[in-house]
Write a structure and sequence with these properties.
The chain is built from 12 helices and 12 strands. The protein has 329 residues and is of the alpha/beta class. The protein folds into 2 domains: 232 residues, P-loop containing nucleotide triphosphate hydrolases (Rossmann fold, 3-Layer(aba) Sandwich), CATH 3.40.50; 64 residues. Helix 4 packs across helix 5, helix 5 packs across helix 7 and helix 7 runs parallel beside helix 8. It is a peripheral membrane protein.
Length: 329
Amino acid sequence: MSHLLEVKDLEVKFALRTGDLTAINGVSFSLHKGQRMGLVGESGAGKSVTGFAVINLISKPGFISGGQVIFNGRDLAALSDEAMREIRGNQISMIFQDPMMTLNPVLTIGTQMVETLQAHRHITRAEAEAIALEKLQKVQIPSPEKRLAQYPHEFSGGMRQRIVIAIALLTDPEIIIADEPTTALDVTIQAEIMDLLQQLCESERTGLILITHDLGVVSQVTETIAVMYAGKIVESGSTEKVVREPRHPYTQGLIKALPGSLQPGAKLHQIPGMMPTLTDIPPGCAFNPRCTLSQRICREQEPPFITIDGDACKVACHMVQPDASKASL
């Protein structure tokens, strides 16, 4: 099966007066048509920067300094701004964590949806309104005809996020990148939005990259998972395998921190320390100062990304033994 999206050795740097800082360091992953993937890690791990880099939307002083982002056979990292505009928001859509940052407060929902469609397709206003109506129905907005004439402030947070998803679906994209799409919502609405997103991806055969710190959400929605730490992927594989049998100490720590993993009343597990800043990434394995298994080799040598369990999982940890498969860089 050919890949719809293939990210190879992606590197993103930020140019500062003191020199370039590496934010993303050699990230690689792939996505098939209709596949749902989770990109997980704490704040500062590089998840959102990776998502923005996929659609070549890194703001200065950031820039893509290496690697490839192959989408339908084209390297997005090498395309001009004009060529990228044909793909961004059209073939690849993005959903942000705060819907009010996406929606224009002074335009009606209908106007915003019609303008989005007409920016990418040569269609009449009536045709655009018909498509907008259809997408609002798909995301289960009640009385969609009335809603087209309303403004963003007239909707609840959950409804606004549904509208943002409807806008992302307008052009029938092949991939949706969802960056913490439910952070601003309460738990019951979060579950509804994630169920909706999953159903839509399945029915439309749309690929999904779900960026989140919440392993609970990822385990319910995605098929594959990549765990990020300090700008690198430290573990990847099928979601079921990684969640059930995490190999990297960082992934183990994230899973132990989930409320559902403990007996009622037990104290939540916490990974000691903090994610390192870009200026202070330690030598060797970046996780070593926070790791209970850390040895001398962890402090001195960067662990290779090795294949384990046949081809089901990959992990970058000196304390995990490879199987018969060879280490892959």
